[in-house]
Design a protein that fits this description.
The chain has helices at residues 2-34, 41-59, 67-90, 102-122, 130-149, 159-181, 204-226, 228-238, 240-245, 250-275, 285-299, 304-326, 333-351; strands spanning 194-196, 201-203. The chain is an all-alpha fold.
């Protein structure tokens, strides 16, 4: 009986682990190229979850068909946040503040007045939460400050600065989504049947999520190893100075890698809702951020392929240990599962400090 239960849960863990691995690949890609730890990782997973939820409820689009839209949204957010917040810290250039002519100052002043008037006029026609107007106003003022400053630094910022920036981005996303959708937990029901394996029952939605994760991992591997764009990004990882000398646009590779990493992360949010379609809320990303860091370190922090493999291992450990602890009287299996997962992480890192796979 225990053997059948354990075998069934290991199969479930294998399927879940593929999705965990996919959810971590973007985190590892960003760190591998930019050496930036994305602390706001879970917030982007949340954006993908709300993308799937909104398209399913508003347009009747199955979550599997929401994957391309989620990837586009993620790439767009990645570019926006890279050029708006991350680039001044990781890709410094220039020597100082942009000097504005009298005409430039007039244009900026007129733009501020125009935006304020536009918000005041439209507030009478559209029932929009005042917090949205406040957010847009802050973004506009930040854009002006960014234009004047020009994103120019003489020195590359310390790692702590990028941690604070990505944390801030995550908080901003959570609060914006809260204003749009409220903090209430939501979910959807997309049932397309299930398959009975004898020792466990797998819904087809979970299989689709796992197969989608595997397909995306294979596509990313082929892109890195078989295309000129992928090889250019790999050259930046190996030696950004040498890549620049050889004619590679390093600044663009930074932007592309950050955007691609966020695109993968948002896409993983869609896949996770196909596995767990309930509990979708603006603050759902916290547990996934913690698991993603564990998986990334487990598989090699700078290796997207290692992250996928680490996700599979983590899924097996999580589900397998839960089964064993649930059969021991007096133990709380969920808490013990987290304890066991982190103990195994420490053991693996003691044996192999670089993770299961080295960065390549």
């Amino acid at each position: 009986m225990l053997f059948e239960q354990l075998s069934g849960n290991l199969i479930q863990g294998l399927v879940l682990g593929m999705v965990y691995g996919m959810a971590t690949m973007g985190l590892s890609l960003i760190f591998g190229v930019l050496q930036v730890v994305n602390v706001g990782h879970g917030a982007f997973i949340m954006v993908g979850a709300f993308t799937a939820l909104t398209m399913f409820q508003a347009m009747g689009v199955p979550p599997v068909l929401a994957i391309p839209m989620a990837f586009i949204i993620g790439m767009s957010l990645g570019m926006l946040f890279y050029y708006g917040a991350v680039k001044p810290l990781v890709s410094p250039s220039g020597i100082g503040i942009r000097k504005l002519s009298a005409r430039g100052k007039g244009v900026i002043a007129g733009s501020v007045v125009g935006v304020i008037l536009l918000m005041w006029l439209t507030s009478g026609f559209f029932k929009v939460n005042i917090a949205i107007y406040l957010f847009l106003g802050i973004v506009f003022l930040y854009a002006i400050a960014l234009y004047i400053y020009g994103g120019r630094r003489q020195d590359k910022a310390a790692e702590l600065a990028t941690l604070l920036v990505t944390f801030s981005v995550g908080v901003i996303l959570e609060e914006v989504v809260k204003q749009l959708f409220t903090s209430e937990a939501r979910g959807y029901n997309w049932d397309i049947g299930k398959i009975d394996l004898g020792i466990t029952v797998l819904p087809y939605t979970k299989l689709l999520a796992a197969m989608g994760s595997l397909a995306i991992a294979v596509i990313l591997y082929l892109w890195f190893n078989k295309t000129r764009a992928g090889m250019a990004m790999r050259s930046v990882v190996e030696d950004d100075v040498g890549a620049r000398v050889c004619g590679v646009n390093v600044d663009w590779q930074y932007a592309l890698s950050f955007s691609l990493g966020i695109g993968l992360t948002v896409t993983s949010g869609v896949l996770l809702t196909m596995f767990i379609p309930v509990g979708i809320n603006p603050y759902m990303g916290g547990p996934y951020t913690l698991k993603a860091f564990v998986i990334a370190v487990l598989g090699g922090l700078a290796s997207p392929y290692g992250a996928f493999f680490g996700g599979v291992v983590f899924g097996l450990l999580e589900n397998g240990s839960y089964t064993l602890f649930a059969n021991i009287p007096g133990l709380e299996p969920f808490a013990m599962t987290r304890f066991f997962s982190f103990v195994m992480l420490l053991v693996i890192l003691l044996i192999r400090p670089t993770g299961l796979l080295k960065a390549k």
